[in-house]
Amino acid sequence: MIAVLLAGTTLAVTPDMTLAQSYRFNAVQVDGNARIETGTILSYAGIARGQTVSGSELNDAYQRIVATGLFETVEIVPRGGTLVINVVEYPTVNRIRFEGNRRLKDDALSEIVQSQPRLVFSPTRAQEDADKIAEAYNQQGRISARVTPKIIRQSDNRVDLVFEVFEGRNTEVNRIGFVGNKVYSDRRLRRVLETKQAGLLRQFVRSDTLVEDRLQLDEQLLRDFYLSRGYIDFRTTAVNAELARQRDGYFVTFNVQEGQQFRFGNITVVSDYPQADADQYAAVLKLKSGAVYSPSLIENAIARMENLAVREGLDFLRVEPRVSRNDRDLTLDLEFALTRGPRVFVERIDVEGNTSTLDRVIRRQFKIAEGDPFNPRQIREAAERIRALGFFETAEVNAREGSSPNQVVVDVDVEEKATGSLSFGGTYSTNSGFGLAIELKETNFLGRGQTLQLSTSGASNNKNYSLAFIEPAFLGRDLELSFNIGYSETESDNAPYDTKLSQFGVGLAFPLAENSRLGLRYNYVDSEMTTATGVVIGPILTAEIARPKQTESSIGYQYTYDSRTSGIDPNRGVLLEFSQDFAGLGGNTQYIKSKARAVAQTRVLSEEVTLRASFTGGVLNYSKGSSRTIDRLGLQDDFIRGFEPGGVGPRQRDPGGTYDDALGGNMYAVASFEAEFPLGLPEEYGIAGGAFYDISNVWDVGASGAGQPNLLYNGGSLRHVVGLSLFWDTPIGPLRFNFTKALQKETHDEEQMFNVSIRSTF
What we know:
By secondary structure, the protein is an alpha+beta fold. It has 6 domains: 2-89, membrane protein fhac (Ubiquitin-like (UB roll), Roll), CATH 3.10.20.310; 93-166, membrane protein fhac (Ubiquitin-like (UB roll)), CATH 3.10.20.310; 172-257, Ubiquitin-like (UB roll) (Roll); 263-340, membrane protein fhac (Ubiquitin-like (UB roll), Roll), CATH 3.10.20.310; 345-416, membrane protein fhac (Ubiquitin-like (UB roll), Roll), CATH 3.10.20; 492-758, membrane protein fhac: a member of the omp85/tpsb transporter family (Porin), CATH 2.40.160.50. 15% of the residues lie in helices and 46% in strands. It contains 11 helices and 38 strands. The longest helix has 18 residues, at 295-312. The termini are far apart. 23% of the residues are buried.
């Protein structure tokens, strides 16, 4: 007998027969099949009874049966006038298990593998699944991970498929370096990259592993960073990732060429569109000669001009930037040409991949609709807005030709991610004991793009409950609707009184211009003060506590101007905020509360040092009734550094110290100047330093203080504080440690020389 073996299968023919011979079988017999029908196997073979076949056709039949992947062994044996097909079926998969996996859970691995219970076991597919699992670990930085598929035979021709996982150690990025950079330090460039060095808390950091795709993104991020700062010739010549000898870490090196910095030269506008006045469009540019070149500034200028064209009713106007390079003076002359673009319309917008998020949430990120003139820039901007939602792992937006050459179809392909979070926290104080805080937040509620937040916190003496809801596109427009309701009971550790407060608020916010936004709001507050147990208080607090429950019904607005992301200089920005609330629409009080905030920031010394100046102030003016301590300003505001809460401002204190009541003030003002800088510590520590100088004051208790004895600092004086800060980026958030010294204070001010807070960002 001549036997031909292939992947565990056998084709057998008699010795006196060759593949060139012809055969005629009176019968075709199938043996060994239990699960797969005989007719199905015969259909794969393609040999009928009485059919004349050659030896090569028998081989072809054998190959077709093998190719099904249903059989462990196949044997075709001619026996006289009978063709016998012997098969051994692959078993079915009973269940799939994973052993040895800790970093990647079973649910995550189950989504990777193609093998499934109740399907036919395939050794090839099982090995492919093992390779996919190993690759998933590779993406997690575990390049030494090994996965072995094994089977455990069960009854009824079933098997359990077990993937034995050896995860190996995490192969981290130990060091990221740069070669060729002169303008910006390695420290500054490392902050640009998505890939991070392994730090002290590396067990909590997932960006410290080497991922090839991430390195490609890093190259683009470096390019964008330099290009936004005028280095138009910047390029990355090479990226080298060298594995340490112990195979426990990578050393990544970016070889770069920075080139020279270019600025804008002459900026002009010309019109090839008869209805478009070049001077009119030049007036909205907001670009200045001598400014550092940046592609984003050009994009913003084009957007302004195209928006003007829409308002003027000029369809298909396109703005073509023409750049002329002047190497002698390192400038780029820029000419904006107003031209008539092709008459192309948006046929439709197709959205795919969203299972929870409603189509309209994605569609409203487009400023164009079906039937509108096609504008490639608007499509790119819509793609950025979709990614900025935070609902998707990936979001791809592309345009293709539609049913005719003058129509396009916009394809949106997204991959969703989890948008809900459940947070737990705890507090402890000697007076209140342990407290628990729970917060449930969903930023894509019911797939509508809405935010729903529930929170509760409390200890034995304090309770807080709140509910907040935000609709970012009320009535399908760029109009944010917000709603909040809350209740709190406090037995303050820092004040000789207790409070109960209920509040309800609703607001609307919308953009006014490119960098400005206006918010309108209504608030209702029901509050009362009660006497704390076992404390002695002064006459002012006694009178305020004796008042009946106070209700406030107010309307207000807030104007915000923010140039931090769209300004001419990427290293500079300004934030301006002004708000007012008018109480008296019901309730038993009437007042006007005004607050203002101004912050300016710049980065110097190759962006290593951040300088920041800010001013914050407020005025509370009552026309009916008078303010209470819990209504006034400056008691709970954490921007008055160097002092305890309520440690600055008016207070009523008897000479013997029997009572000492912080009262807050109807007016406050704070000016702050600070610098943030590196300390020279290894970057992986995540620690930076800072220094600041603050000037502050809180004053005026209003009518409550009229004729009252022992009232101190009602007019007050400026307090001066200097301090040093440590900034530490931790897995629980960026922390700030302040060490302060009051240079000028009042006698009975309560100084706080050290405090820890969550770092705020500008």
